Amino acid sequence: MAKHTIVLIPGDGIGPEVTEATRQVLEAAGLSVDWVELPAGTRAIEQGFENVLPQRTLAAIQAHKVALKGPVTTPVAGGFTSVNVQLRKRLMLYAAVRPVRSLAGVKTRYENVDLVVIRENTEGLYSGIENEVTPGVVTSLKVATETACTRIARYAFRYATRQHRKRITVFHKANIMKMTDGLFLKCARRIYEEEYPNIEYNELIIDAACMKMVQDPTQFDIVLCENLYGDVVSDLCAALVGGLGVVPGANIGDDVAVFEAVHGSAPDIAGKGVANPLACIMSGVMMLNHLHEEAIAEKVRNAYNSLLAEGKSLTRDLGGTAGTREFTDAMIRRLK
Ligand code: NAI
User: Fold this and answer.
1) DSSP string of 44-112, one letter each residue
2) In whole angstroms, what separates CA 19 from the centre of its chain?
3) What DSSP state is assigned to residue 315?
4) I want to staple 54 with a disulfide (CB 3.0 to 4.6 A). Which of 4, 49, 144, 227 is the partner?
5) What domains can you pick out in the chain, each with its CATH number?
6) What is the dihedral of CA 228, 103, 7, 60, to 10 degrees?
7) What pLDDT shows up at residue 220?
């Protein structure tokens, strides 16, 4: 079996807890790997690196092409620019892919949810271009480029074809943001019409789309969004299937991929040993598929599916009493 080199970024808050759990689970499942552990976020500063996104961390991801990342904390209304935004831009990780699926054993109001949020990851209102025009008046620039809008649309249609999915719905607000969201739609329509006419395509204004999502999420297959909408809709969708503890993610570029859960650093539960590592483990499964380790991926997926279905080792966010350690140990026992 090939030995992989993977950059491991523990991150902040619950990040070190959930990435360590994932590391142990992937190794127990048989992954042969050299981990290159490097920091990002406040941990990087604590370890004496030059800033929250050290050059060494970036260079290692560029060299090894694949990283597993824990969440990092971003200060609110001031402080440094989000590490995630910087990382996604610097490495041109233009597609955030977030599969949202109902899980047997995780009780929610919905059954049979199986959708994927694909989010443009490099521009929109997250371009970070903000200005104080005059005291008391500030602006934030929403950037949409034909290149990035076309790139994410083509990615979504290609993904739909490869994953045998049938329908793409774009969530937008082009009735108000006629130029930026208008361009996003124009590019998506063009890719649909010229390259993928066999995939079903439709568009929904984001406010009504959110209502429809909560009414019946099973009507959605692939949801394609610009950056901000994708961020918000991902968390909304997480709540439909059990919360942030069960939704994985991948940030994909042409050359490099960084796998991380949708959730953040959860400072309210950090260090308490109660975080659900499953979203990070599931992100690890996405990483295994990316590395063409499908058999190991399936082993891990079977392990958590049977564990959840049994309902014994559920973490607190899923209504159980297990801590991070107990859940991880139960996973490892199942894999041996
Ligand atoms: P959050 O996702 O960290 O937490 C929201 C709620 O979900 C909290 O109650 C938390 O305890 C719970 N939660 C999240 N993950 C969980 C898990 N694995 N197991 C059990 N419960 C879990 O969102 P919040 O509080 O808005 O953000 C905290 C920090 O994380 C902020 O600094 C934010 O910028 C950052 N963040 C980082 C992300 C990343 O690095 N990819 C993504 C989202 C937020």
Assistant:
1) HHHTT-SSSS-HHHHHHHHHH-EEEE------SSSSSPPHHHHHHHHTT--EEEEEEE--TT---S-SS
2) 14
3) B
4) 49
5) 1-92+245-336 (3.40.718.10), 109-241 (3.40.718.10)
6) -30
7) 98
Q: Is the CB–ligand 1 distance for residue 17 below 6 Å? A: no
Q: How far is the CA of 188 from the centre of ligand 1 (A)?
A: 31
Q: Which of 49, 97, 110, 78 is nearest to 259 (CA)?
A: 97
For residue 152, what pLDDT is reported? Answer: 98
Q: Rounded CA gap, 40 and 46, in Å?
A: 10
**The pLDDT of residue 29:** 98
Q: What token pair was written down for 267?
A: 């400072």
SS3 of 207-264: the string is HHHHHHHHHCHHHCCEEEECHHHHHHHHHHHHHHCCCHHHCCCEEECCCCEEECCCCC
Q: Is 173 a catalytic residue?
A: yes
CA distances from 289 to 14, 35, 248 (A): 25, 17, 13
Atom 30 (ligand 1) nearest CA: 264
CB 223 within 8 A of CB 118: yes
Q: Specify the 3-state DSSP secondary structure of 174.
A: coil
* Gap from CA of 15 to ligand 1 centroid (Å): 10
Report d(CA 127, CA 330) in Å as an integer: 42
Residue showing tokens 């997926």: 301
SS3 call for 295? helix
Tell me, what's the pLDDT at 2? 84
DSSP letter (8 states) at residue 200: E
Residue 170 has what pLDDT?
A: 98
> Hey, is 138 helix, strand or coil?
strand
Distance 213 CA to ligand 1 centre (A): 22
Look at the block and give the residue holding tokens 């104080």: 132
